[in-house]
Write a structure and sequence with these properties.
By secondary structure, the chain is an alpha+beta fold. The chain is built from 16 helices and 18 strands. The strands form five sheets. It has a five-stranded antiparallel β-sheet with strand order 5-6-10-8-9. Strands 1-2-4-3 form a four-stranded mixed β-sheet. A four-stranded antiparallel β-sheet has the order 13-14-12-15, with helices on both faces. The longest helix has 21 residues. The protein is globular, with a radius of gyration of 23 Å. The structure holds flavin-adenine dinucleotide.
Amino acid sequence: MTSAGTIEDAKGPAELRLALRQMLGEDIVLSETEEMLRFCRDWHGDVTSGTVAVIRPRSTQQVAAAVKACRELGLSIVPQGGNTGLVLGAIPDAPERQVVLSLSRMNRIRKIDPADFSAVVESGCILSELKDAIAKMGMFFPLALGAQGSCQIGGNVSTNAGGVNVLRYGMTRELVLGLEVVLPDGSILEGLSTLRKDNRGIDLKQLFIGAEGTLGIITAVSVKLTPYPDHVATALLGLASLEDAIKLYRRARRDCCDLMSAFEFMPPLAFTLAQEAMPDLPIPISAEYPAYVLMEISGSGLIDIDDLMQRFLEGVMEEGLVLDGTIAASQTQARNLWLIREGMNEGQAKRGTHMRTDISVPLSQLASFVEEAEKAVSEALPGAVSVSYGHVGDGNVHLNVLPPAGSTPEERIQLIYRAKTVVNEVLDRYTGSISAEHGIGRLKRPDFDARLPASRRKLLTALKHAVDPEMIMNPGCQLRF
Ligand SMILES: Cc1cc2nc3c(=O)[nH]c(=O)nc-3n(C[C@H](O)[C@H](O)[C@H](O)COP(=O)(O)OP(=O)(O)OC[C@H]3O[C@@H](n4cnc5c(N)ncnc54)[C@H](O)[C@@H]3O)c2cc1C
């Protein structure tokens, strides 16, 4: 079929879909509306959109063909990984002109190389499956987040995901060695190097990390591995305040030889929320303390991690910095402690639509920021409940606000808008970030846009025009150009 003929014939979404099926193959392009809707709903189920078509390629060449076909038909492309992003980056906002390109069928592990401490994988590989396959070879891929059973490595790279191990291993950017990307003109940028050091000019892969699909489609990734940490000690600790939690973090980094791999902060409400999601979940510590820390140290080889954790906690408890604590005695107990942290997300979702943030400020200002922002919320919105928790070691807090029980959908929308304004006002005084790890997507575009310095906007616009002059890659995500 010629491109001119296709455009002429294809007037509405149904005709465009038919044209795509003819150009790419029926197996690649979904046609049933019900099936397509699954790809158009966000993780929380708050937003459902539509799309011209859902394209599901099986190879890099098929992705390239799909990009070329969409260009011919005047369609733009929303790449989608596991669709666990929390900022509406992976679902269309112009259903009549956008297709979803799902990477889920591109899920092969091309190579795991323990000798080189590297792996090469297709972007649709689910994170937990990748981690498991790597672990079977005695190696470790440290990226770890609550959505790892569904999110994909391509989505992780595109959002530069963070997670619970950032304080030791860095954000996803620091774990990526190379990328293969289909560019907006349908050409393939081949860059699946596994070199650790390579200073041959500008590092182009960095353009696509955190770009949320606005510059191209990542089809494969080469990543760094480390030896599997077979010794892990996990503890849940009760403290007097978030400020004390930050003091404890600094102490732990020094005293635990920088072997700490996670340090998560939670309020006492975390237990109630987790049990609302998982009623049988055991809570092995009293809920009487104002602040809780879930801490993990880990290592491979000759170090005695259990002894290190034991001695560290004895010291800080003697000093009164930690008021109470429990160390997991088995993998099951450790898993249950992590389920409290993960379950509190689900518990919040069960309480209905609420305001979610993903904020970072310098570590030294985190406690005063949280105190000030929570106070501002309670003054402006009596009855609303602030829930602050997160990756404290990275200065990253999710300060969420739950509307009072029984609020109507309209009241919730108003409260969310008001709470966001109140929290962002405090955040701006602290010159923090509105997106520490989740990205911008479509949800945070107005807030990002409003705070974008002119010099950065100019460069971002020039970059977008250079790489994607026809603006076909994920329009509406991050910025409108
Ligand atoms: C319960 C829960 C816990 C979470 N915890 C964390 C956390 O601790 N840390 C954190 O950082 N995030 C967290 N997230 C958010 C989310 O899991 C991450 O942003 C994740 O990296 C998204 O991956 P995904 O495959 O689901 O991407 P998607 O949601 O499908 O897409 C995200 C963005 O990337 C683009 N994209 C996806 N795949 C590609 C590709 N192959 N090429 C180009 N662009 C692409 C999409 O267009 C979209 O803009 C959490 C989410 C949930 C639901």
